[in-house]
Amino acid sequence: QVQLVESGGGLVQPGGSLRLSCAASGSIFSLNVMGWYRQAPGKQRELVAAITRGGNTRYADSVKGRFTISRDNAKNTVVLQMNSLKPEDTAVYYCNSRVVLDARPDSGSWGQGTQVTVSS
Asked: Among 21, 40, 113, 118, fewest CB within 10 Å belongs to which?
């Protein structure tokens, strides 16, 4: 029932910035938590950041201080502002929604993914 559409991926140089957006539609309950995950080739999908409707956030240690997640509840959008990008940030980034922060992300919905490549 939930549909998530990501945008904003692309190619940037190390130290650069990207802004990823996710537009969501579906039940308010299903969109209580929204977040971003990423998957690099040969690696498992991992949490990047998540945010509840009330503004509680969670970040991967690897992105703390560099990435900021925010949401606009009225517009049902979530944004990941990525600064000081590193080559190891290269991955496909997926938007996710679920009902509680500590639930497994597969209990909710996924977007189609957007490629982020950090390279010189």
From this structure: 40
